[in-house]
Design a protein that fits this description.
Layout: H1 2-31, H2 40-86
C-alpha cells in the first residue's frame, strides 16, 4: 500500500508538471497574437456574431428545457392516470 501511495504521488507530480508546461505553452501562444492589423469593423463584426451565437444557444437551451418539462409532465400524468385506473 505504501508503494502504491508513492507511485500515485509521483504520478500526480508528473501530471502537475505537464499541466504547468501546457499552461506555459498556451500563455506563450497567446502573447504572439498581433491584433494591431485587425480593423475596428472586423472586431465589431466578431462581437456581433458572438452575441448572435450566444442568443441562439440560449434559445436552443430554452427549447430543450421546455421539451423536457413537457415530457416529464406527460409522464407524470400518465403515471397518475395508470394509478387511478388500476388502484
Amino acid at each position: 500500500m505504501l508503494q502504491r501511495d508513492k507511485e500515485n504521488r509521483e504520478l500526480r507530480k508528473l501530471n502537475r508538471d505537464r499541466m504547468k508546461e501546457h499552461h506555459k505553452y498556451l500563455v506563450s501562444k497567446g502573447k504572439n497574437a498581433d491584433l494591431s492589423n485587425v480593423s475596428i469593423e472586423k472586431i465589431e463584426e466578431i462581437r456581433k456574431k458572438t452575441i448572435e451565437k450566444e442568443q441562439s444557444d440560449q434559445m436552443y437551451l430554452f427549447r430543450i428545457y421546455i421539451f423536457l418539462t413537457i415530457c416529464l409532465l406527460v409522464l407524470f400524468l400518465l403515471g397518475l392516470f395508470c394509478y387511478k385506473l388500476f388502484f
